[in-house]
Each structure stands twice: as structure tokens, then as C-alpha cells.
């Protein structure tokens, strides 16, 4: 019905300077809509309760706040006056209209690998979204980071744009997964550690990254810190529904699933799973767990049995699709406990998808657990039931509590 309505209003149109048939234009717009879903454009460019793509909520970076811009085709405040060349340049090189340089919080280093045809489809789609007048001041960084000319140096150091090239030794499915993970999906933007300049550490690809007071876990095939014990079906289920037999998504990943991956084609989800199962971890052996007789473990066990075991079970097994297992999961065994601390302090809400519409929640314990209590219970969780990870300190909890309060 929507296609018929669009075709009825279009006999022919001009796109990229050439005449195209209305039927072809519809196909390009529809393909571009899917590219916008793959790239999760709405996650940054639509703020909660706001008009689609009219500008997002501030992103807190280590260098200050950046506000995602209005990318609707509004002439004055959006990209309505842009050409396709302007758009392509912004997406693939980080340089927009009139030479304005973009900050890499807009993941152009990943989008640079996208095929021009996919970027062209994305452009066709954004020409047809609702124009919204909403002027956004994107750059709210303090001096000297607010000087965009500094990005020339950043790009020289950290950015080598190159379109994705398939690996002939791998399957078509593997290559599709690699294309999505490294390109439109920009998984490394969150899941790869960053250098002092904010660039991805390429030699630690997908081994976990700290961003906006969350830790995106290791999603390599590492059997201890990563998702090596997950099957391809487990990965697909997690991305499609927000839950699998190991974990339930929360925080930014719950948002990514709700707005993006749950809408991906099943073939693309399977391709991503195939690729991720082949991404190697660092090869480091699992650490020795903290001894059960350690004072932090003893105190943590008492807190766990009192506050946590009703939902997560005394064995850490959890309840399928309701309360995540805490035994042998990447988030729990990761080197960085930031997300665990945050969830205990603030609570969390799971993703909502068509397949798993129930959104189980965890209450906040920040109001009635001290910094030492949180550290002890997490040290216990991270070193029980086959888990092994560095202990959490009261200082780590104190610092994150202060950051979240700010």
C-alpha cells in the first residue's frame, strides 16, 4: 500500500543528477531505510521523545559533550541544502558541506568501508524523511577540542579510509558479516578499546571498550572473556530478541537491539554470528579466581544471598529470558567491571522486542549498599560458579558513583 501511494505521486525523479523511474526510486529509498537501520542512525540522531533524525541527546565523550546533528532534509537546520557529494563525503571521510569536519563520535572511520551504492541508497532515504526545523549546536567541547581544524591531525594519525574488500579465502556469509560488523554496524565503535586520542586500538579489535560510563564487553571468540562459548544461534537470538541462554541485553546494547538489530534480516544476523565466531581474542588464559576464603568473597557471598539470589539463583544460573545468568558470561568475566557496578548502583531495564516483549528490570541498590558492599558482592560474583576476574575495589565504585551523580 505504501509503495503504491509513493509511486502514484512520482512519475520520475532526479537522483544524483540523473532521471530515475519512480519504481527504481522506491526500491532505493527502501534499501536506504534498511541501511539506516543497519547503521542505527536513529540511536544518535533521534533524542527520546523527539522527531526522527532531528538531532539527538548529548553524547558524553572523554573530551566533552557532542550533540548529534539534525539529518532531516530541512533546508535551514538539516541537510536539505546538501548535495549527494556532501553527504557521501560526510559519511565516508568525515568532511561535510563546505568542508566542515566531523568529530569521530560520528563513526565515519567505520562507514568509510561501506560500498558507495549503500551510501547512495541511504542518501535517497534521507531525502524522503520528514523535514524538521531544529537547529542543533553540535560542538559543545571545551577549548582546545572545540577547534575542528585539530581533526586534520587526528585523521592523519588515525584514519585511512578504504572500502571493504572481500576475503576470497572466506565464505560469502563470513564476508557479509565482516562487512556489517566493520561498516554500517560499527560494532568496534563501542566494543574496541580506545587510544589516548579516542581512536580504535586496531590490534585489540572487539576486545571490549569503555564508553559513557559503560563497558561494552569483549565479543571475540575468547572462551572466557568473550562469546566463544556462544553458538551462532545464541548470537542471533541475542541480537534478534535481546536475550539468549547466557545473557539479557541492558543499557546501550538494549537500545541498539530495540532500534536496530531486532529489525535486521535473519540472513544478516547469521552472517554477523559467523564472522564474530572467527574473530580471535588475545589468547590469554583465564586468571586464577579470588579464593573463596578471601574476606571480600565472604562478605560478598552474604550480600549476594540476601539481595541477589532470589532472581539470579544461588548458583548464578538466573532465570531464562527474565534474569540473566551470572555464571561464565563475558560481562561478568571482563577485565573492566564498569557496567556491573553501574547496574548495581542504578538498576537496569532489558530490551523490548517482538519476540521478547517483557522487559524485566533490576532495581537500584545504590541507595542501600555502600561502596565496599558493591565491591564485595561483585568480587564474589566475578569469582564464583566458574568465573574468574580481578576483584572490584571500593575506590572503583566510589569513582563511578561520583561520575554518575555528575
Properties at a glance:
3-stranded antiparallel beta sheet, Cytochrome Bc1 Complex, Chain D, domain 2, cell membrane, repeat, about 400 residues, disordered N terminus, mainly alpha, transport, two-stranded antiparallel sheet, 18 helices, heme binding, heme
Structure description:
This protein has 406 residues and is mainly alpha-helical. The protein folds into three domains: 2-131 and 147-158, Orthogonal Bundle (Cytochrome Bc1 Complex, Chain D, domain 2), CATH 1.10.760; 172-276, Cytochrome Bc1 Complex, Chain D, domain 2 (Orthogonal Bundle), CATH 1.10.760; 295-405, Cytochrome Bc1 Complex, Chain D, domain 2. The chain is built from 18 helices and nine strands. The strands form four sheets. A three-stranded antiparallel sheet has the order 3-4-5, with no helix packed on it. A two-stranded antiparallel sheet has the order 1-2. A two-stranded antiparallel ribbon has the order 6-7. Strand 6 and strand 7 form a beta hairpin. Helix 2 (22-38) crosses helix 6. The N and C termini lie far apart (49 Å). This is Cytochrome c. Keywords: Cell membrane, Electron transport, Heme, Iron, Membrane, Metal-binding, Repeat, Respiratory chain, Signal, Transport. Its cofactor is heme c.
Amino acid at each position: 500500500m505504501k509503495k503504491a501511494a509513493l509511486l502514484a505521486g512520482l512519475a520520475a525523479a532526479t537522483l544524483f543528477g540523473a532521471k530515475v523511474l519512480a519504481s527504481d526510486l522506491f526500491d532505493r529509498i527502501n534499501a536506504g531505510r534498511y541501511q539506516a537501520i543497519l547503521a542505527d542512525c536513529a540511536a544518535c540522531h533521534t533524542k527520546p521523545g523527539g522527531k526522527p533524525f532531528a538531532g539527538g541527546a548529548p553524547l558524553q565523550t572523554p573530551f566533552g559533550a557532542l550533540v548529534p546533528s539534525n539529518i532531516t532534509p530541512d533546508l535551514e537546520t538539516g541537510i536539505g541544502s546538501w548535495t549527494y557529494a556532501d553527504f557521501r563525503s560526510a559519511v565516508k571521510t568525515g568532511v561535510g558541506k563546505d568542508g566542515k569536519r566531523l568529530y569521530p563520535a560520528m563513526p565515519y572511520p567505520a562507514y568509510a568501508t561501506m560500498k558507495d551504492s549503500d551510501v547512495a541508497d541511504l542518501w535517497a532515504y534521507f531525502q524522503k524523511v520528514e523535514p524538521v526545523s531544529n537547529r542543533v549546536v553540535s560542538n559543545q567541547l571545551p577549548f582546545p577540542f572545540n577547534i575542528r581544524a585539530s581533526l586534520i591531525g587526528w585523521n592523519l594519525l588515525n584514519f585511512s579510509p578504504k572500502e571493504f574488500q572481500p576475503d576470497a579465502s572466506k565464505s560469502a556469509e563470513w564476508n557479509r558479516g565482516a562487512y556489517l560488523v566493520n561498516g554500517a554496524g560499527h560494532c568496534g565503535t563501542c566494543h574496541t578499546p580506545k587510544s589516548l586520542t579516542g581512536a580504535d586500538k586496531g590490534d585489540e579489535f572487539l576486545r571490549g571498550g569503555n564508553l559513557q560510563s559503560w563497558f561494552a564487553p569483549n565479543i571475540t571468540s575468547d572462551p572466557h572473556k568473550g562469546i566463544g562459548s556462544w553458538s551462532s544461534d545464541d548470537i542471533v537470538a541475542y541480537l534478534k530478541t535481546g536475550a539468549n541462554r547466557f545473557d539479557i541485553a541492558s543499557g546501550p546494547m538494549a537500545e541498539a537491539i530495540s532500534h536496530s538489530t531486532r529489525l535486521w534480516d535473519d540472513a544478516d544476523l547469521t552472517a554477523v554470528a559467523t564472522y564474530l565466531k572467527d574473530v580471535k581474542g588475545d589468547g590469554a588464559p583465564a586468571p586464577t579466581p579470588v579464593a573463596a576464603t578471601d574476606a571480600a568473597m565472604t562478605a560478598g557471598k552474604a550480600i549476594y544471598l540476601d539481595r541477589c539470589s532470589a532472581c539470579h539463583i544461588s548458583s548464578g544460573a538466573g532465570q531464562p529470558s527474565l534474569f540473566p545468568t551470572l555464571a561464565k558470561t563475558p560481562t561478568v568475566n571482563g577485565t573492566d567491571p564498569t557496567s556491573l557496578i553501574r547496574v548495581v548502583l542504578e538498576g537496569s531495564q532489558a530490551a523490548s522486542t517482538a519476540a521478547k516483549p517483557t522487559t524485566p528490570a533490576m532495581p537500584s541498590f545504590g541507595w542501600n549498599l555502600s561502596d565496599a558492599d558493591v565491591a564485595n558482592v561483585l568480587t564474589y560474583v566475578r569469582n564464583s560458579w566458574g568465573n574468574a576476574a580481578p576483584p572490584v575495589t571500593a575506590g572503583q565504585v566510589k569513582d563511578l558513583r561520583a561520575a554518575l551523580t555528575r
